[in-house]
Amino acid sequence: MKIIDISQMLAKTSAGWPGDTPYSTELKWTKEETGSVNVGKLTMSTHIGTHIDAPFHFDNEGKRVEGLALETFIGPALVVEVLDQEIITVDHLRSYSFKDSSKLLIKTNAWKDRNQFPTSIPALDEHVPAFLKEQGIDLLGIDLPSVDVLDSKRLQNHHLLHESGIQILEGIVLEHVTVGQYELIAFPLAIEHADGSPVRAVLIQR
């Protein structure tokens, strides 16, 4: 068994959404102060690095993180490549077999430097969510900060994926992963009332 980490390393240089809460960590108490332990403090957005979106992120009536089924975040995953495209369409996905997969991870390699927030990203065509639903997919992961174009206010693909029963995993790292079948584990943290959560996403290759 081989475990492949597909998570971004969170660091002070991590590029979050412009204007959003950046990642930072510090020692709240040192071992010298407490006499026994170091205790750290984290400050960060729920949508920095590798993370999942709860439906509440884009729908006030949607479920928050604690209401999501954990089964969605573990299971057989297919990694596919859609490289050098401005729009990811159904035609880019038809050649792959989804027979043994309930998760789809799309490798675009379009986010070149994760210390810099991208100025543009490939767009997901509006017909993709319905196609993935037909294939039995319940989670879509992508190596980009969003499944919608960066300046979208309607967040059309977020809503269409949700309507199709498909959970959203964003900001994964797939440059070192080859196309094929894996087991995905990408559990969100147990955070009450959250609109999203960082995850430690890994693929298992057996």
What does this structure look like?
The strands form three sheets. The chain has a nine-stranded mixed β-sheet, covered by helices on one side. The protein has a two-stranded antiparallel ribbon with strand order 2-3. The model has no long low-confidence stretch (mean pLDDT 97). It is globular. It has a single domain (2-9, 46-205), classed as 3-Layer(bba) Sandwich (Glucose Oxidase, domain 1). The protein is mainly beta. The termini are close together. The chain is built from three helices and 13 strands, in the order E-E-H-E-E-E-E-E-E-H-E-H-E-E-E-E. It has helices at 31-34, 128-134, 156-163, and strands spanning 2-5, 24-29, 39-43, 51-53, 74-81, 87-88, 103-107, 123-124, 139-142, 167-170, 180-185, 196-198, 202-205. The protein is 9% helix and 27% strand.
What labels describe this entry?
single chain; 206 residues; mainly beta; Glucose Oxidase, domain 1; 9-stranded mixed sheet; two-stranded antiparallel ribbon; globular
